[in-house]
């Protein structure tokens, strides 16, 4: 890779070991993808939950944090994805003091690096939405796909170590979604069944993600009748990224790089595949379990917006969660503060639900929570979550928010 | 014993030799594994129940979220990791995870579909810097 004088100096360790490590790490990654040079980035966002880091990862970050302040501080605004723990509720969830202790160590180390612990995967709705054309180093696939697609910013999937390296140096290897040629549509889909509600948008994302099938495919989507909202696209993107590792989509006539199909591909060369009602039914059918007892109902992945929390509060008003069922509503600390101030949190809690902040269900020791609470059957309106959580020993089912609430009240899947 | 050499894009990590565990399915450390037990734990995965510890894992592509970038490092630190992972096509997260963990990872094989070129049980040597994988056929 071609390096500037400043980059050579960082690689030689002239600005301290953390930045030397960062340059070495990013050069390895850049060579893997034939990056010719680095591109400056303006924000970094890092997955930093201790379930992913483990003792080894926390130790690694503590090692960086032990360096002098001038050598260890990040050089661009850097924020974090959800943690694994809500310190107010971890014992209720069956998480352990050891998990909380590891989380505290991680937080101390990240704060020593100058990282803002925002603990959110909806930063594009709540912290500082990226601007079209900005180069970023974002982690959390849902954050990346939304920022690339809906906002027209430019980021690869950056895992925690690479986001950290970008934060320490203010740059990232120029490959993948930073390059114009990788942002062209490679597959074309025509939707003939209109999604109705967040679970449906997630289901559409699941279908698209499975059919696109890899990080290097970019789906163009036609046939959507009305302009979707931010939460709709949040669920669609998160599911698409989860099912297919897809980092970018173009919604023709909606997303900024795709005013029309000809802007993102040669329409004559790319035939459209249809996505219809039967495809949606197949997604729900794969996870169906009507009549079964439901152990835990989860609203998370991505964290809920203030609008989703308002909808949930309205659905739960005057209702009581079944004593054998747990309902979890998860959001970011920033949104939680607003929801508390506006009375939404109290309304949700009045039903017997747990209102959680700063974590996300699948990043929070889900296997250990299942074992501690005897949870198996999980119900959610998040297509992303049903895709992930099977590996943690759960039997997941996908349903609308209204059906999830009705099931939580009944104690079985309605 | 028949030996063949496969060419791939240069990857990351050290030279390693081990026994192949092959699937045409995809890979995510978060979605597919019980990392404590060292086995594939997602029921729908084609390697469900199989141990990946110390294997040369051969898969189609990387999928899922960004967590694998930390998780490979964590798995290796506990001695519960594959020795190497070979992909038809990797994604950035797994490449980043390999760089942090010091785990051998390669992709883009010149001879075609790596999940067909290597069979479970083959003895495989991976030289990531050279982009060279040597396969000794079992049996």
In summary, what is this structure?
The complex is a heterodimer of chains A (414) and B (139). Chain A is an alpha/beta fold and 414 residues long.
Keywords:
heterodimer, A: 414 residues, alpha/beta, Aconitase, domain 3, 3 domains, five-stranded parallel sheet, B: 139 residues, Glucose Oxidase, domain 1, two-stranded antiparallel ribbon, globular
- Rounded to an integer in angstroms, the radius of gyration calculated over CA atoms of chain A is 21 Å
Range of helix content of chain A: 40-55%
Q: Trace the largest sheet of chain B across and list its strands.
A: 1-7-6-5-2-8-9
For the termini of chain A, the CA-CA separation is: 57 Å
For the largest beta-sheet of chain A, the strand count, sense and barrel status come to: 5 strands, parallel
Task: Provide a descriptive summary of the structure in words.
The complex is a heterodimer of chains A (414) and B (139). With 414 residues, chain A is an alpha/beta fold. Chain A folds into 3 domains: 176 residues, Aconitase, domain 3, CATH 3.30.499.10; 101 residues, no CATH class; 123 residues, Aconitase, domain 3. Chain A has 17 helices and 14 strands. In chain A, the strands form 4 sheets. Chain A has a 5-stranded parallel β-sheet with strand order 12-11-10-13-14, with helices on both faces. Chain A has a 4-stranded parallel β-sheet with strand order 8-7-6-9. The longest helix of chain A has 16 residues. Chain A is globular. The N and C termini of chain A lie far apart (57 Å). The model of chain A has no long low-confidence stretch (mean pLDDT 97). In chain B, helix 3 links the parallel strand 6 and strand 7. The N and C termini of chain B lie close together (8 Å). Chain B has one domain: Phosphohistidine domain (Glucose Oxidase, domain 1). The mean pLDDT of chain B is 95. Chain B has 139 residues and is of the alpha/beta class. At the A-B interface, helix 2, helix 3, helix 8 and helix 10 of A face strand 1, helix 1, strand 3, helix 2 and helix 3 of B.
């Amino acid at each position: 890779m071609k390096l500037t004088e400043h980059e050579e100096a960082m690689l030689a360790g002239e600005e301290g070991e953390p930045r030397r490590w960062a340059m070495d790490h990013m050069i390895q990654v850049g060579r893997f993808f034939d990056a010719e040079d680095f591109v400056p980035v303006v924000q970094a966002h890092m997955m930093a939950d201790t379930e992913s880091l483990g003792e080894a990862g926390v130790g690694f970050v503590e090692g960086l944090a032990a360096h002098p302040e001038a050598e260890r501080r990040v050089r661009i605004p850097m924020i974090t994805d959800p943690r694994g723990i809500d310190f107010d509720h971890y014992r209720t969830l069956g998480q352990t003091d050891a998990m909380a202790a590891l989380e505290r160590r991680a937080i101390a180390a990240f704060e020593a690096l100058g990282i803002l612990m925002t603990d959110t995967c909806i930063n594009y709705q709540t912290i500082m939405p990226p601007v079209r054309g900005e180069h970023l180093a974002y982690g959390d696939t849902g954050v990346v796909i939304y920022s690339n697609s809906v906002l027209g910013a430019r980021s690869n999937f950056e895992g925690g170590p690479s986001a950290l390296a970008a934060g320490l140096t203010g740059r990232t290897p120029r490959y993948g979604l930073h390059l114009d040629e990788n942002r062209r549509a490679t597959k074309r889909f025509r939707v003939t069944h209109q999604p109705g509600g967040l679970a449906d948008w997630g289901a559409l994302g699941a279908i698209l993600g499975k059919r696109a099938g890899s990080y290097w495919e970019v789906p163009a989507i036609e046939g959507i009748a009305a302009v979707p909202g931010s939460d709709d696209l949040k669920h669609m993107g998160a599911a698409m990224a989860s099912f297919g590792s897809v980092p970018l989509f173009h919604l023709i006539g909606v997303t900024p790089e795709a005013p029309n199909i000809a802007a993102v591909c040669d329409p004559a060369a790319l035939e459209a595949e249809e996505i219809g009602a039967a495809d949606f039914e197949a997604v729900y059918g794969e996870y169906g379990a009507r009549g079964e007892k439901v152990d835990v109902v989860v609203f998370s992945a991505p964290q809920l917006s203030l609008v989703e929390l308002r909808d949930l509060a309205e659905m739960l008003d005057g209702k009581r969660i079944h004593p054998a069922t747990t309902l979890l509503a998860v959001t970011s600390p920033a949104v939680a503060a607003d929801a508390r101030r506006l009375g939404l949190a109290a309304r949700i809690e009045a039903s017997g639900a747990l209102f959680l902040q700063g974590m996300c269900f699948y990043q929070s020791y889900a296997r250990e929570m299942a074992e501690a609470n005897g949870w198996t059957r999980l119900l959610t309106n998040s297509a992303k979550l049903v895709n992930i959580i099977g590996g943690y020993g759960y039997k997941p089912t996908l349903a609308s928010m209204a059906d999830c609430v009705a099931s939580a009240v009944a104690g079985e899947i309605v | 014993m028949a030996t063949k050499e496969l060419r791939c894009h240069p990857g990351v990590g050290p030279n390693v030799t081990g026994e192949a565990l092959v699937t045409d399915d995809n890979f995510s450390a978060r979605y597919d594994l019980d990392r404590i037990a060292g086995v594939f734990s997602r029921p729908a995965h084609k390697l469900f129940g199989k141990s990946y510890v110390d294997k040369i894992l051969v898969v189609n592509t990387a999928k899922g979220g960004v967590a694998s970038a930390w998780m490979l490092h964590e798995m290796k630190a506990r001695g519960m990791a594959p020795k190497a992972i070979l992909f038809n096509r990797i994604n950035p997260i797994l490449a980043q995870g390999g760089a942090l963990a010091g785990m051998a990872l390669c992709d883009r094989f010149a001879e075609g579909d790596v999940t067909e070129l290597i069979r479970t049980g083959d003895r495989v040597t991976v030289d990531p810097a050279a982009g060279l994988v040597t396969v000794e056929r079992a049996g």
